[in-house]
Amino acid sequence: MNAYNRDNFFPDTSIGYLVRAVHQLGYARLDAACANEGLTGIQWSALIAIHFGQTNSAALARDLAHDKGAMTRMVDVLEAKGLVQRDRDDADRRLVNLSLTDEGRAVAMRCRDRVIDLWNAVLADWSAEETACLIAQLQKLRRALEVAA
């Protein structure tokens, strides 16, 4: 059975529209949560991705849905703030690996704690089961989209 037809496909029922709206609203909240550290939500997302092991700028750009040029400029800003450092890869000198400085790690963790508080506030009326189900469904949707590509 198909999920959509001409009678039930509207913006408020469209997965694409809803995911995009949630994304935009979420990043506006992330911006506010990270503002006192002088970061935007997307800058914090880059820091936390690096913290969790995403050290390749091209992969980071793909994961955060940024083009490589925009990612390079963002890393330039984070490096100028003393939060990120670039190092040539020992095995392949053409590659540049990203890592957090001590200050970058501290800022990323302070923002992480605010982001945890943010999501806990947003999901305050949700049961643990509802939250787990949403996460599982979004992960399933991501896998389906990756396979479809």
TrEMBL record:
Keywords: DNA-binding, Transcription, Transcription regulation. Residues 11-143 form the HTH marR-type domain. SMART domains: HTH_MARR. PROSITE patterns: HTH_MARR_1, HTH_MARR_2. This is Winged helix-turn-helix transcriptional regulator.
